[in-house]
């Protein structure tokens, strides 16, 4: 078994709130032990325990910034100058994590960029693994950049498990540099784009082989992938049957029926063009022999945005094989973690965010078409700078009592 598989099994099988204990103290203690197992047994860090054999060394939080709402903090493992911390805050929010990390930088072990913090909030089924970074190519102000993996129930742990193998302290390369690589967003989004192109090409060829015109094959491939990706984003909000893994579980249910070559023709088509394109009071889905499927689809929220309308390419008479759809869902979309929070230059979830839709559109639409239509995707770093320059000019021109002279630090 590979190291990445061992890490993934640890997250998938053990990082489950109800299995960690029946109350906060049990859950917290067992979660700390689980992360110590990860870093000590799997990644060869040194175990840190507290006085009297307690699970970890407690860090005082009384003098931390009050906005962090920090309740407890622990020093749980280390390797050389890299330290692993476990921090309990009132609620998992980015601004609380930022205030906590700003407070941590004043502590004796918190050297710049050389620690990983695991954040938890009472009764939360998820944890945030955060690595701060104070300078870098995505920084425009010198402000601390937070890079984050989301772990726990309903999360896909494949990417984080693979990337954490880079953090094995027994390897000879400098650990700090490997940690920075493990927490980089760009390789994840670049790999997603390359995989998207491959899947897009597979769908297009599948349709061309059935005599569909090139333009229509490309249009349908985009539509299908956009619809599926949209579902992957909104299921993170638990809007679909209160299930963060709605699409994967729908596929599992289909397989349990023993049907063949009906996943698109019956299941996905009903989901797209009936369940998601009509108000709940207008739905009357009854075509499934299992009433649990009918009830499930009849209670899907209505999405009035045009994405799930039936277009000309949807009625071309082609078929989509189960094998192709299984590869799209199981081997592509299920491989990645999706986040509904778009990145800022200073808070980066290491996952696929909604901005990826714009990047794909920008990259795959022909340059000539984009030029004629005036369609261009502006990178977030440029948007960030333009927004802050605009705010600066507003204060300079309309609120000159606040900024009597130009101050570049304000930007």
Mind sketching the topology for me?
Blueprint: H1 3-14, H2 17-20, H3 24-42, E1 46-47, E2 57-58, E3 70-79, E4 82-89, H4 94-104, E5 115-120, E6 126-133, E7 145-152, H5 158-164, H6 175-182, H7 186-208, H8 214-235, H9 246-257, H10 263-275, H11 291-298, H12 322-332, E8 347-349, H13 355-364, H14 367-373, H15 380-398
Parallel strand pairs: 4-5, 7-8
Antiparallel strand pairs: 1-3, 2-3, 3-4, 5-6, 6-7
Detailed description of the structure:
By secondary structure, the protein is of the alpha+beta class. It folds into two domains: 3-183; 187-369, no CATH class. Helix content is 45%, strand content 11%. The chain has helices spanning 3-14, 17-20, 24-42, 94-104, 158-164, 175-182, 186-208, 214-235, 246-257, 263-275, 291-298, 322-332, 355-364, 367-373, 380-398; strands at 46-47, 57-58, 70-79, 82-89, 115-120, 126-133, 145-152, 347-349. Strands 1, 2, 3, 4, 5, 6, 7 and 8 form an eight-stranded mixed β-sheet that branches. Helix 4 links the parallel strand 4 (82-89) and strand 5 (115-120). Helix 7 packs across helix 8. The longest helix has 23 residues, at 186-208. The N and C termini lie far apart (50 Å). The relative contact order is 0.09. Mean pLDDT is 85; it is low at 136-140 and 404-411.
